[in-house]
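Sharing a chain and its predicted structure for anyone who wants a worked example. Both blocks are below, sequence first, tokens second.
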Amino acid sequence: MRHRFPHIPFHPTSYSSGDHTSSVLRWSVVRGASASAAGILLLVGLATGSAAAEPHREDKIGDHGRALLAEYQTQTFAAADADDPDVPVDTDFVTLIVATNPGSTDEVAERVESFGGEVNGVEDQLGYLRINVDFADVERVEDIDEVLAIDVDELIEVPEVAPRTTEAAGDVDAEAPGPDTPDDNPYMPANEIGAVDFRDRHPQADGRDVTIGVLDTGVDLDHPALQETTTGDPKIVDWVNATDPNNLVDLVNDDFFVFMSDVSGPTFEAHGHTWTAPDSGDWRFGLFEYPVAGAEEDDWGVLFRPEDGTILVDLHQNRDFSDEEPIEEFSESRDVRHFGEDDPDTEISEAHAFVATGLDAHGGMVHIGLDHHGHGTHVAGIAAGHGLFGGQMNGAAPGAEVVSMRACYSTQCSTAALTDGMVQLATSHGVDVINMSIGGLQALNDGQDARDLLYNRLVEETGVQMFISAGNDGAGMNTVGLPSVADRVMAVGASVSAETWAANYGAEAVRDHGLFPFSSRGPREDGGFKPDITAPGSAISATPVHTEGAPVPEAGYELPPGYAMYNGTSMAAPQAAGGAALLLSKADQEGRYVSPAELRAAIAGSAEFHDSLTALEQGNGQFDVPEAWNLLRHDSPVDDVTVTGPVCTEQSGQLVTPGSGPGLYNRCLVDDGGHAPGETQTYDLEVSTAASGTQRYRVSVLGDEDVFQLPRTLRVDDGAAAELEVTATAEQGVHSAVLQLDNPRTRGVDHTALLTIVAGAEVADSWSVSEEVDRAGVDNHPVAVPPGTQEVTVRMSGVADTSVLRWVAFSPLGPTAEEVPPGDCYTGRPNVECDPLVRTYTDPQPGVWDLAVDASRLSGPDQSPYELEVTLTGGE
């Protein structure tokens, strides 16, 4: 495996025969117990490099962090293994994720330790710490001048990627994919980003010599499409777990930790049975509960000797470890074991592949590693699968290797494990690109949380580019989640083609190219450019071989075990990561080093912008691998340009520079400086460049060109900021465009910024609109809700019996304002959880709301008419 970048050591909690304490990373075991208090984990990220302090928000922990602290202090936690009363759990501590001033790691650590806090992890070259402090000491951490930002460790849900179905027949007669399916196909639509065409033109640049890190739920080690690369090398080169039993959130939620007690051989009594050890020595013993079809019991005995790291699992379930072989580390021996035995007469596999790792936490324990969810296996298949269904069907980069980094349990992930896993992948496993298809939406998504700052630093310092799903919290604006909002991360939205609608869903589409309604939209709270690009967000890909096939019933065909049709930005991000692997593979063959900045510029500058979508929906547009290579191969870097524009939102006073950001974003009420419908306003942007001398940039916009008027050229002098005047005439609605600054001396677009104007409908007694929405399409209706409003009532009418419509109300702060998850709140659907025709929102947040109306793929007509009426009660 090639190591493209300098190796930076990182040491997660794992068994070691030597001293665990090092100058690079230090861990401590949780001690003590409390039944009345709760705890959380703090992570501290340090930005290193220049001597100057990074800009940061005045409020270091934010409303979201404070809400988590308040919630945790009302909870009581128990260890995942509740049967063992001897497991020590200290729930009086809290764990944060904190960014500090450059060069102040030691100083911050000393301050934390001075009031009794524990510094459990330090990564000096990246300035990354992980600490535990008492709840009462959180404010003392905030008061440290060198601390820039604080995140509170929390659980993030693994995205729900199985599409909702009705079991009804689809509109299109689709055929199932199989061994005869060609590589260019709509089931795994990698060629919609040009991946197949690129590989056909450059057969040796199929991802070989590139390693993709997959930070997720783990990857199934038995799946046939994830066994070998196109060159016959092992596909999965390492399988690592990032969860940590010293982190309270992981400790109480990760059921794959095996908690243990001391025993001595040759025989011992435990859990009501007599067990036989392989010798008379001292061991640690525990039970791992994991039901497997055909197994005699649900529990599997596990024996561990911390002194030499020996791990034994009673796979015969005879309570005798003397007939078991020790399990070695996967990275050293590719040792894979199985729970249960496969029945060759059945299509599904009854054997579940796993790896095992010894840990020194809590006196010695074991972690069992496998993909119990399927999300990570599906993602890996999209990025780098080879020979799906035993035929020609591939993921985007079938020649690439994969490192599986597990940071999630069955349905949830801790932000601490995701952060540790990302650090490990970028610094210690030789990966060249990382995919993370997990994130969470917060109201203030301005890219300034501690994880955002750390991910930016990781990309810059290690040279490893990250592709992260933009989120499934659309179709409202300003819904891109953390940490994909980080500046140097590429946030990927989920597109879909008419061919894929037909093949994967049995549905007839109205548009040749569209965006899934759930795909999160931009901009960032500070007007920042998100999402960066789109990629196909639907795919039939690999799942663990012990799981049943999962097609969309409306498609009218079955899938064999180990394959499923999933959709989400979770599926879009690995398409992009695989596409990037192709570019790096080709560059490597030509002896070229491509920096993350060059890679991002080439991908963004060559993306295909679709006029049928808004800039907020698609960012720069659809990833185009061949066109990106056309930019990269000329080795012509773009200028380093900075744009600063006015930002007016309900939270713009909380930004690093209040009222200012890297784009133009006006979503305020008119009385607060907002843009009234039909009004013309002028906005002043500042543009500066790091290029020496005087530069002249061509100025253009993609998107709502009729709304935004700008000069055609802009002169920027070295060391000075130039003023760029934007004149906007906006009717009621959401208006957005991509501002492009292009220096004719360089080959690509030098800089892009988002321009966003939201002109909310002014409601007197009531306001209504009559429209038609395309099947699988979205209409956005911004509505102004003034301070003092007591209730907002929304009514939908005029909907045809065959139409399947819904609206989702999004708060001025970004996230949905629906109390009940809106997934099934469609007209024409049985057993809905909410009223699809009338809903009232009490004590609404003042500001401009976004009412997003979408028509399901199951809606009958191509265009569905509707009327939406909004009534306000109270208000100034």
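Comments welcome. The CA atoms of residues 251 and 748 lie 48 Å apart.
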